[in-house]
Amino acid sequence: MKASLFLPLKVRPFRLLMSGQIFSDLGNWLDFIALNAILVFQWKMGPGEMGLFLVVFGLPWIMCGPLLAVWSDRYSRKTIMIGCDIARVLLVLGLYWVDNYYLLLLLVFLKGTCGAMFDPARQGMIRSTVPADLLKQANALSQAVLTAAKIIGPSLGAALLTVTSPHTAFLVEAVGFVLSACFLMFLPKTRSALKEERQTQHFWLEFREGIGHIGARSVLLSGLICSSIAMWMIFLIEGLGSVWTRVMGMPSTAYGTLVAVVGCGNVIGSIVLGAWRKAPHPLGLILGSHVLFGLLTLLKGLGGMGWLPRDFVFYVCIWWMIGFINAFSTVSFSTLLQTETPEHLMGRVSGVVTAVQNAAILIAPMVGAWLAEWIGVSRVFIVSGAGLILYAMIMSFRLPRLLRSTETVPAERQQSLPM
What we know:
This is MFS transporter. With 419 residues, the protein is mainly α. The protein has helices at 2-5, 12-42, 47-63, 65-74, 77-97, 101-129, 135-163, 168-184, 195-199, 203-216, 218-238, 241-247, 254-275, 282-304, 312-339, 346-375, 377-405. It is globular, with a radius of gyration of 21 Å.
């Protein structure tokens, strides 16, 4: 199983890409705690300013991602990723010196814009450098790196706060982006056979091609709808986790522990799925994981209502299982996205998908907070869990007919890859 999981790392371009991703993803998350510390404790910002900061933090992925993804299909993905890393070095150095709230927001927005352009190029690079039969393992490794960065990055940022000023995180982050660019510099240049044709097309025509491809591929469209609904339901309760621990009578440190447990479960889940040689169809895995995720969310809601024992170890296990199961959904959708999308459309389709998913992520917590005020925190967990189960079961009834009616994307000619 281990040999199967890590087989993509034998492909030298993918190995270099993962090395770059490690430092790039760490850089994306290292400064989150530092920025919060600066705004809250040094600049004494209130809830309104913090809310605007969070909106600006996520907005580039929705507004700019689909448009910038057109360029990731038109030009060298290697050049785009290196350029984004270098630009982020300059931006985080700007964050080190900035002393104005609105200028800080501008730098955060521009840094997010670079990330929104980097990610479609990375997705396309995976698609163009990894053989089709290794895409599941490659996506599992990539997801494990991303999840680990989301745990280690903020933790490292918090650790730096205990020994130095928050601004030090920006210097460490700049070094990370430099190292990422150094690894990516050794990637081969990938050129699409349709490059010249695409450069003669109108920008908006190319943009519509990405959206049109999603609409034409029923399995991909169904996967996007499923993942977006699931993200809506999940992030409906994401901002209520700390409040839920208080309702459960847990100590103040419990939420941080539970978040770390979810991250660990997600990393392990990604590794297990990557090593699963004969996994079911990705869309089936997505729906199955959402049913289980909904059941576990229901248990959290019932616990908050006092209908289940309030044993901390029991809920640690539940949160770990949530992370483990969620990996099956995210890795499966990444695999579905790449197997259902030709290489020359990978950036545009990935950009549209990311924008749709992040729109759900951005809006859902506000709706969740409103529902919590109306019906209570625990009932929001119950509504979210029941909604996940209901939609996943409805979609499951359509799954066999959907798979039978779907044509396979024509296999592209596989070129020999440097090992």
